[in-house]
């Protein structure tokens, strides 16, 4: 992967320039993808299944390499990107044989920290996601939403500059999903980090985001971007407002156009 200092855009944290990804099978997941992530924003990647959203996220994280193009980090962020990225997967991926505290401790333990030295950071991360009373519980004792909260706490414990989230709430029921959407926005506003959030839900992308990048079907690329320029904090009043409905309608229409412009089957 090519990682270089980005051009001097004051708010550009990381950018994908002409990024392509072709797998060994010959499947072209991404082609000519251009995307700039700005410091402090909540950016959603919205698109149909199979359009390369998760692949783009993994390229930002350094979990896979592009076959074309470059990833450009701010010069100060480029030196720290390995330590300042948090990643939340679609599944909680918790270790079932140990408790929530030790699951959240894991990223710090891998860097040499002990439970005694990192205990306060783990406790703070659990409190941010509302699990402060479940530190000694095991994953099997938690609901699906609570397991995802634990996964988010594990990503937050490293105090990341950028939080990457790959459809973390897709498998949850609607009530739990709404609650976690609200809690995630509170954490984002409190910590002022940058979030890149993958989803195929128009409604979720509009509710959460300051900007939505709509992707065309495979090979994935940015079809267009939508600014969701309504202020935060957002709550149930926004979710039931005419403004929210109008944003959702516009995003839905744009997504339909992007799918029609795709180069292959979804």
Q: Helix tally?
A: 9
Percent helix, as a range, is 25-40%
Strand content: 15-25%
Overall structural class, as computed from helix and strand content, comes to alpha/beta
Compute the number of strand runs.
10
If you compute it from the alpha carbons, what radius of gyration comes out, rounded to the nearest whole angstrom?
Answer: 18 Å
The main sheet comes to:
6 strands, mixed
| Poorly predicted runs of 5 or more residues | 1-9
Distance between the termini: 27 Å
H-E order: EEEEHEHEHHHEHEHEEHH
Placed side by side, the strands forming the largest sheet appear as 6-7-8-4-9-10
Overall pLDDT confidence:
90
Shape category:
globular
Task: Note down, in words, how this protein is organized.
The protein is α/β, with parallel strands linked by helices. The protein has a domain at 94-159. Helices cover 38% and strands 24% of the residues. The chain has 9 helices and 10 strands. It has helices spanning 53-61, 75-80, 100-109, 115-128, 144-156, 174-191, 202-208, 236-239, 242-260; strands spanning 3-5, 12-22, 28-38, 42-46, 68-73, 85-88, 162-166, 194-199, 211-216, 221-227. The strands form 2 sheets. Strands 6-7-8-4-9-10 form a 6-stranded mixed β-sheet, with helices on both faces. Strands 1-5-2-3 form a 4-stranded mixed β-sheet. Helix 6 (174-191) links the parallel strand 7 and strand 8 (194-199). Helix 3 crosses helix 4 (115-128) and helix 7 (202-208) crosses helix 9. The longest helix is centred in the last third of the chain and has 19 residues, at 242-260. It starts with a strand and ends in a 6-residue tail after the last helix.
């Amino acid at each position: 992967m090519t990682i270089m200092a980005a051009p001097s855009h004051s708010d550009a944290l990381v950018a994908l320039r002409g990024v392509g990804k072709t797998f060994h099978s010959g499947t072209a997941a991404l082609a000519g993808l251009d995307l700039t992530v700005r410091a402090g924003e909540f950016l959603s990647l919205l698109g149909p299944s199979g359009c390369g959203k998760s692949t783009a996220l993994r390229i930002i994280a350094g979990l896979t390499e592009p076959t074309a193009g470059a990833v450009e980090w701010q010069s100060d962020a480029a030196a720290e990107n390995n330590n300042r990225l948090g990643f939340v997967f679609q599944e909680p991926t918790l270790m079932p044989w140990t408790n929530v505290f030790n699951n959240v401790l894991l990223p710090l333990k891998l860097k040499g920290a002990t439970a005694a030295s990192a205990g306060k950071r783990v406790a703070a991360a659990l409190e941010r996601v509302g699990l402060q009373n479940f530190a000694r519980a095991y994953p099997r004792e938690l609901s699906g939403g609570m397991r995802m909260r634990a996964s988010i706490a594990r990503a937050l414990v490293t105090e990341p500059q950028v939080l990457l989230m790959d459809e973390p709430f897709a498998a949850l029921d609607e009530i739990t999903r709404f609650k976690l959407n609200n809690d995630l926005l509170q954490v984002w506003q409190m910590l002022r980090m940058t979030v890149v959030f993958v989803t195929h839900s128009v409604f979720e992308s509009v509710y959460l985001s300051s900007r939505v990048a709509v992707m065309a079907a495979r090979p994935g690329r940015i079809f267009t971007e939508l600014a969701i320029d309504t202020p935060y904090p957002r709550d149930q009043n926004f979710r039931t407002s005419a403004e929210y409905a109008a944003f959702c309608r516009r995003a839905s229409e744009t997504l339909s156009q992007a799918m029609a412009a795709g180069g292959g089957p979804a």
